[in-house]
C-alpha cells in the first residue's frame, strides 16, 4: 500500500512562509518517496504575498511536490499560469500539475470542474508557447449550509 500527502497551501494563511516552509521541509526530510499535493491558492499571485521562489517551492520546486491548484475563477487560473511562466524563466523547470480543484456551488459563481480545468489550460496557453500539461483530474468541493 502506498499513500500521498496533501496540504491546503495558501499564502494568506502563512504570510511569512515559516509554517509552510517547515511543513514541506519536514515532509522532504522524511524521505517517504511519495508525493505531496499542494491543493491551495496563490493569493495575490506571484509576489503578492510570497515571492516566486516560495510559491514555486510548494508547487513543484520541492522534489515531491505537485500542484493541484484551486481554480475558482479565471483570475486564479491566470495567477497559476503566471507562476508556471516564472518557474520556466527563473528556474528552467516546469510547474508540475496534478489536476485542478474547484468549489462549484449553485449561486456562488465558482467554475464547474471541467470549466476550471479549461480556464487553467487556456491561461497557460496564453502565457507560454510550451505550456506544462494539466491532467484532466478535477475535484469539486461541495458544502451544505
Question: Can you put this structure into words, describing what you see?
Answer:
This protein is of the alpha/beta class and 145 residues long. The protein has one domain. Helix content is 38%, strand content 10%. It is built from four helices and five strands. It has a three-stranded parallel sheet with strand order 1-2-3. Helix 4 (113-127) links the parallel strand 4 and strand 5 (138-140). The mean pLDDT is 91.
Outline:
The chain is of the alpha/beta class and 145 residues long. 38% of the residues lie in helices and 10% in strands.
| Span of the ends, CA to CA | 36 Å
What helical percentage do the residues reach? Answer: 25-40%
Poorly predicted ranges: none
The largest beta-sheet arranges its strands as 1-2-3
- Please indicate the percent range of residues in DSSP E strands (runs of 2 or more): 5-15%
Number of strands: 5
The residue-averaged pLDDT reads 91
Largest sheet: 3 strands, parallel
How many separate domains?
1
Radius of gyration: 15 Å
Specify the overall morphology.
globular
Helix-strand pattern, N to C?
A: EHEHEHEHE
Protein structure class: alpha/beta
Number of helices: 4
Amino acid at each position: 500500500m502506498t499513500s500521498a500527502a496533501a496540504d491546503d497551501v495558501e499564502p494568506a494563511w502563512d504570510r511569512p512562509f515559516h509554517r509552510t516552509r517547515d511543513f514541506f521541509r519536514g515532509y522532504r526530510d522524511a524521505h517517504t518517496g511519495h508525493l505531496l499535493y499542494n491543493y491551495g491558492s496563490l493569493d495575490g499571485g506571484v509576489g503578492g504575498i510570497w515571492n516566486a521562489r516560495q510559491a514555486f517551492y510548494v508547487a513543484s520546486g520541492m522534489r515531491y511536490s505537485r500542484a493541484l491548484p484551486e481554480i475558482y475563477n479565471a483570475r486564479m487560473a491566470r495567477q497559476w499560469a503566471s507562476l508556471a511562466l516564472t518557474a520556466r524563466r527563473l528556474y528552467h523547470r516546469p510547474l508540475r500539475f496534478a489536476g485542478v480543484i474547484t468549489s462549484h456551488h449553485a449561486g456562488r459563481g465558482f467554475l464547474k470542474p471541467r470549466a476550471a480545468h479549461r480556464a487553467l489550460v487556456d491561461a497557460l496557453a496564453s502565457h507560454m508557447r510550451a505550456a506544462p500539461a494539466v491532467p484532466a483530474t478535477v475535484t469539486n468541493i461541495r458544502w451544505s449550509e
